[in-house]
Amino acid sequence: MKRDLYIVSQVIRTGKITLSSRMLLNDSKKGPPHVQYRRPYGCAVLAMSDVLQTISELKEEKDFVLKVYTENTEGSTCGLIISLQLLRGDMEQVRRENPLIFSRGVAITRKLGFPDVIMPGDIRNDLYLTLERGDFERGGKSVQKNIEVTIYVLYADGEILKDCISLGSGEPNVPEHRSFVLYHNNGPRWSEVIKLPIPIDRFRGSHLRFEFRHCSTKDKGEKKLFGFAFTPLMREDGTTLSDESHELYVYKCDENTTFSNHALYLGLPCCKEDFNSCPNIPSSLIFQRSMKETFWISTQLSSTKLTQNVDLLALLKWKAHPDRVMDILGRLRHVSGEEIVKFLQDILDTLFSILDDNTDKYGPLVFQSLVFIINLLRDSKYYHFRPVMDTYIQKHFAGALELIRCLRWYMDRFAEVALEYLFKFIIQSRILYSRATCGMEEEQFRTSIQELFQSIRFVLSLDSRNSETLIFTQAALLNSFPAIFDELLQMFTVQEVAEFVRGTLGSMPSTVHIGQSMDVVKLQSIARTVDSRLFSFPESRRILLPVVLHHIHLHLRQQKELLICSGILSSIFSIIKTSSLVTHTHMHTHTHIHTRNTGEYVSCLLSLLRQMTDIHFQHLMENFQSKDELKEFLLKILCVFRNLMKLSIFPRDWNIMRLLTSNIILTTAQYLAPALHKNFTEADFDFKVWNSYFSLAVLYINQPSLQLENLSPAKRKKVFDKYGDMRVMMTYELFSMWQNLGENKIHFIPGMIGPFLGVTLVPQVEVRNIMIPIFHDMMDWEQRKNGNFKQVEAELIDKLDSLVSEGKGDENYRELFGLLLLEKIEQETWRETGISFVTSVTRLMERLLDYRDCMKGDETENKKIGCTVNLLNFYKSEINKEEMYIRYIHKLCDMHLQAENYTEAAFTLLLYWELLHWDERPLKEFLHYPAQTEWHRKEGLCRKCWEYGIPLCRSWPSSTNPKMEAAYYDNIMEQQPLEPEFFRVGFYGRKFPFFLRNKEFVCRGHDYERLEAFQQRMLGEFPQAIAMQHPNQPDEAILQCDAQYLQIYAVTPVPDSVTVLQMDRVPDRIKSFYRVNNVRRFRYDRPFHKGPKDRDNEFKSLWIERTTLILTHPLPGISVEVSPLENAISVVENKNQELRTLISQYQHKQLHGNINLLSMTLNGVIDAAVNGGIARYQEAFFDKEYITSHPEDTEKITQLKDLMQEQVHILGVGLAVHEKLVHPEMRPLHKKLIDQFQMMRSSLCHVSTRNNIILQPQGYKYIHGAVVQKAVLLCVSAGSAWFRQVRLRAQHTQRNPGHSRPHEPRELQTDAPTQVSNTQRLKVPVRLSCFNLIQIHSSVCTTMPSKPHSVSKHVENV
After folding, report:
1. Contact 316, 350 (CB under 8 A)
2. Minimum mean pLDDT among 672-681, 921-930, 1165-1174: which range?
3. Cα(831)–Cα(821) distance, integer angstroms
4. What is the number of other CB atoms lying within 10 angstroms of the CB of residue 532?
5. SS3 for 410?
6. Over the stretch 1084-1093, which tens digit does the pLDDT of each residue have?
7. Please, which pLDDT band fits residue 1184 given cuts at 50, 70 and 90?
8. Computed from CA positions of residues 1332, 1338, 1341, 1343, in that sequence, does the dihedral angle turn out positive or negative?
9. Element (H, E) at 596
10. How far apart are CA 534 and CA 544, in angstroms?
């Protein structure tokens, strides 16, 4: 079915040929109705490759449509529908399984040719004839002929054989066949195939006759005979027509010619070959050959009785020529294999009949012919004919007693022979003879067999390295030798056959140097011996095992042909169940099977160990002559066991095999442990053996296949019921062996701490309970030896980090670890240091577990960063593990870089930078750092944070530092940083990770992120959390509940660098850095009302609870209450700072184009002041009643009044800037702001005057610092030295308050600013007279000639 198969359908139309249309007209009224012609109409093809897949999946018929292709295919719509169904099995099976199909008269078509196997009794005699083509003359006509060929099969007497022509399966046989007619074609190509089922007895003497007629297109529809051809079916030598194409002669004749006397043409040559055999043909014969016309046919014979080979025919008919028997037997080897297997039964019958006729004369030649046929069947091409031979021997063989003698004669001459079928013939002959004679000559037969085996042994014992002929003979004997065992068992006992086999196998040379090919043949013969039925008998195994193992041992020792040897051992161990042979086998093979860890040797080893008992292991241990031999054995077998537990040994899905292997290893380890303890403890302690044992135990317990927790409940129960928890059993063995070490335990500290720690992390409670106390034992032994357990401490912490990172350990392990060790340590003299160490480890474990869960889960970057910070701080501050601290510094840096937090990443690396020194000390390669000196590594870490980069540059001993420092200054002044928002976040509840649980943090928000957005982001990171709607401290119930509560509110940074913020000459960008960086204190204000609330003015009773958070312990911080007046001061001060910063940015063109932000800010402040705002503060705090009742607030009232006046002046400056930048379309808004500003000033003056609170002592007035700031900025921008002069004069005035000159300030008094906010206002409160102010601005105008009126306007506003 794998060949290119096609279903081809030829459509033939029958009828009359018309002259006009060349079509067949069945309904033509002209011409005789009985005249019919076959004309080709079309053809349809179906490729089986397209439908096999479809029908192979169905059990019922399926229809397929075949398009019919005709000469004119354009308008053709013809088609055929066929149904196909695929039936599997031989014919008998198909008939049995599908009786309904065969009840409908199904036709069975035999293969065109022979099947793959022709069984004895299968008789067939079919000749397939193909009409190929012809070349004919026109015959004087103007047009070509319409030629029809009629075929007849005639016997020797001229009788037409009836029913010897088959046109197809299922069709009745006919006496003649008429070909189809091609219109006007003198060179027709028919390619029609017919079958000629001629009886064998009528085949000789029969011939085929082909008559050629021209079919007229006239109305009469005449068929005119114009020629014929013929060919006999069998030649004179008895061979049939050969399977090839034949060119036949065409003889002329006419319509009146009769063939009543066939002898008239049979004497003529039918073809060229026939003409050559009879060249002298008279020319006066009645039939003359048409020299220009020829006719081609091809034949194919499918017959089990007729042959086309002369030599084979002579053999089958040897009795006709008894004098030629010797020559006939010699020529058999020249017959093709196809012919021999086709007539196998007849050939064998003929050979044995010749042998029986004269054994002495024909015996050797018959035997050679028989060997030739047997060897032919060994060829893969004819291997499937072996059942034919088997069937013949069992059912058709009649006996040949002289085969043993012939075989011995053959063996003595070192001839290549296959024993299998020869022994089958021999045994069958003996059985038949014994039946016929009632067992006569039994002893003679046995003696002949023994002599035959002696000949075989002699041939096998010879050295064949110098004889190619002998090599082939030995190879043939060894290949066929195991096949004779079953035949021998029919005549001999199991022990007798086993002795025959042992002697034969033992005769082979005991060397592996006879040649690689012969080594392979020898081992393959041994392998087939082991796989034979003979070896399955225990009594035969006792005889055969020694010689089999001897040869295997030779090859294993030389490391030759290991794959075949492993297969033999596997077969042996699969047969042997439990017997005393196990120990013997082990002693011969175990030493070498470890050399290659292939699957075959693994199965051998496992099978062997599985069958060994206490007695076997005891016997094994006693057979070692010295401890060195025992040590070597233990090291090797423990190494093999470790390799067996690697995943690469077995495929991943071989779980059953892995479990079986683990069980065998566990059992073997239990048997080997006493020998290890007995021979390698105390004085004979051997670290290498013990370390190998412990390594095996650790690897065993950690095997993935033994982790029952990862299996489904059903699989877990099945494994547990069959094997138990093998991890626990091995753990008990490990603990017992550890206890047996005694003082030698110190040799495994700290080497075994990591492996044992890995065992304790296995998620099995009993394993943990057994193994965790070993750490106490290690601490105790190191304490005894060194006075401390630093090695245990260091190694345990290092390994714990890596193991937990790999996914091992859990919260239960952390609790159990601390509980068991603290219980053990409680009675020790070093209890305090032990408890401290165990506590540190358990706390480390908490953080490591949180870190692992964070990294593995779909957590946000913020959570991962926070967890990492928590862990690296622990390594630094609590257990001082610098290497681990540095590792987590770099992990944290990578997280920041991934989140594009470049500044944070730089600060993270700064932690590592601070650990390094400017020394030449060489550092090893570490993480991604190459091996380099310490100062090179420190130099490479100095990057990116400009403000912090400047002091780093100054500490950096390098010539390039000034350039880098200058670049940092440029970046500070040119790039505008954004001041972030800060939020206080509390994580309450036990559902949070340990590093967050019941802790509070101050978090910096993203750029432009406000409270609502930040809160949503945090709730997105913790979707199960509940947002607390109040800022109050949570109670204990919330802290201990199994839930998550988030408390979030905004906080304000309180800078520590107050001095920098108070300096007038410091640019705002620098102050902005100090306001939000390097800050440890944050403030949160919560408003509340104390006392009765004034409905008209709520500011009178509005208090503020101000909480200061310090970013060091303890939290939550310090809380104070802020009075309404203090709150008002803070609000106005913060608003002034906001206005100053914004106006300054527009003045210096840092904000370009759109002034909407300035417009909205001015409008918000001015509109709020007009409609309430700061006017409400005046009503609340400038009232006489309030001043009288709160005399302690006098200074604060004055401060609030200054801030309010300052806000008015700031707004004036802002409006001036707004007037310059406002778009013409926005002029109405600007005019509205001017009007509201005038109203605001008026209301403030009115309220102030009414309450008489504006005091102007000595005629001086508070002047807004913005004017001075403006003047300073103008002077600095012009490069004048005026500012320095004013500053010097101010200092001089302070030192000499009584000294003054005309037109100079009589008093320059600087008030210390009151800092109430993290946002330091740019205010320089000075007390100046109006005259002095005008003088200052005059100087400014002199220095700055451009636009002096703008400065004057500000003075006028003041």
Report:
1. yes
2. 1165-1174
3. 11
4. 19
5. helix
6. 887 877 777 7
7. confident
8. negative
9. none
10. 10
479 within 8 A of 524, measured Cβ to Cβ:
yes
Rounded to whole angstroms, how far apart are CA atoms 1284 and 1064?
12
90-128 tens-digit pLDDT: 788 888 888 888 777 788 888 777 666 666 556 778 889
The CB-side HSE value for 650 (13 A sphere, CA atoms) comes to 17
Alpha helix segments (H runs only) across 462-493: 468-480, 485-488
Asked if 1137 and 1321 count as a contact pair (C-beta separation under 8 A), the reply is: yes
8 Å CB contact between 1079 and 1055? yes
pLDDT at 454: 87
Helix 1156-1170 to helix 1124-1147 angle (10° resolution) is 150
- Residue entry with tokens 């016929």: 436
The answer to whether the beta carbons of residues 472 and 464 sit under 8 Å apart is: no
**Taking a C-beta distance cutoff of 8 angstroms, is the pair 15, 8 a contact?**
no
pTM over 0.70? The answer is: no
Name 951's Cβ contacts closer than 8 Å, sequence gap at least 6. none
CA-to-CA distance for 865 and 1070, rounded, in angstroms? 29
C-alpha of 605 from chain center: 31
Under 8 Å between Cβ of 1321 and 1063: no
The per-residue pLDDT for range 741-750, each reduced to its tens digit, is: 988 999 999 8
Higher-scoring residue by pLDDT: 714, 1166: 714
- The 3 state secondary structure assigned to 430-449 is HHHHHHHHCCCCHHHHHHHH
SS3 153: strand
Question: For residue range 563-599, what is the model confidence (pLDDT) as tens digits?
Answer: 888 888 888 877 875 444 443 444 333 434 344 446 6
Residue 1327 contacts residue 1262 (beta carbons within 8 Å):
yes
Q: Is pLDDT above 80 for 1298?
A: no
Out of 804-808, 879-883, 1208-1212, which region has the weakest mean confidence (pLDDT)?
Answer: 879-883
The secondary structure element, H or E, covering residue 264 is helix 263-266
If you search the block for the tokens 């801030």, which residue do you land on?
1203
CA distances from 372 to 315, 329, 403, 478 (A): 15, 11, 15, 18
The beta-carbon contacts of 317-324 under 8 Å, at least 24 apart in sequence, are 317/238, 318/350, 318/354
pLDDT band with cut points at 50, 70 and 90 for residue 1311? very low
CA-wise closest residue to 539 among 492, 479, 504 = 492
Residue 72 DSSP symbol:
S
Report helix, strand or coil for 923.
strand
Question: CB neighbours of 206 closer than 8 A, spacing ≥ 6?
Answer: 153, 154, 155, 156, 161, 198, 232, 233, 234
Q: What is the mean pLDDT of residues 1039-1043?
A: 89
Question: Nearest 5°: phi and psi at 666?
Answer: -60, -45
What are the structure tokens assigned to 604, written together?
A: 């051998």
Cα gap 814→849, rounded to integer Å: 9
| Bridging pattern class, strands 1045-1054 and 1026-1027 | parallel
Specify the residue for token string 């070959």. 273
Q: What one-letter code names the amino acid at 1273?
A: L
Compute the distance between CA of residue 583 and CA of residue 183 in angstroms, rounded to an integer: 91
Asked if the model's pLDDT at residue 830 lies above 50, the reply is yes
Give φ, ψ of 1102 to 5 degrees: -80, 110
> How many whole angstroms separate alpha carbon 257 and alpha carbon 9?
37
Structure token digits, residue 1040? 């201990």
Quickly count: other Cβ atoms within 10 Å of residue 476's Cβ.
20
Q: Which single residue is written with the structure tokens 């036949």?
A: 248
pLDDT of residue 1297: 42
More confident residue, 1344 or 720: 720
**pLDDT greater than 60 at residue 1312:** no
The pair of three-digit structure tokens given for residue 1179, joined into one six-digit string: 């009503």
Q: What is the pLDDT, as a whole number, of residue 1274? A: 34
Amino acid in position 265: Y
Residues in the chain: 1358
